[in-house]
């Protein structure tokens, strides 16, 4: 029973991470569209918004298998963080 409770707690934490990434993606997407239409082309703003979009998409993509295969949670978290680091490295 204790193991089931701990898995349920992790599932709730993963759901929170997924919802945060999902909300961040749409907020940043709306901000990106807004800055595009008012013709503000600042290098730093573009980098920040593009990186936030990449980070939130990578979280959403790699958190889905965590829901399906909860035993592989550490591997997918490693994949998320390595993909984020790689995408930030490529943007510079």
UniProtKB/TrEMBL annotation:
Alphabetical UniProt keywords: Membrane, Transmembrane, Transmembrane helix
Bilayer-spanning residue ranges: 20-40, 52-69, 75-91
Descriptive protein name: Sensor histidine kinase
């Amino acid at each position: 029973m204790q193991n089931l409770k701990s898995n349920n707690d992790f599932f709730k934490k993963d759901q929170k991470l997924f919802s945060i990434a999902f909300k961040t993606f749409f907020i940043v997407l709306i901000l990106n569209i807004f800055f595009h239409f008012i013709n503000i082309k600042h290098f730093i703003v573009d980098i920040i918004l593009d990186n936030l979009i990449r980070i939130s998409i990578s979280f959403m993509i790699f958190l889905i298998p965590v829901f399906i295969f909860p035993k592989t949670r550490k591997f997918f978290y490693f994949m998320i963080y390595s993909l984020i680091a790689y995408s930030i490295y490529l943007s510079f």
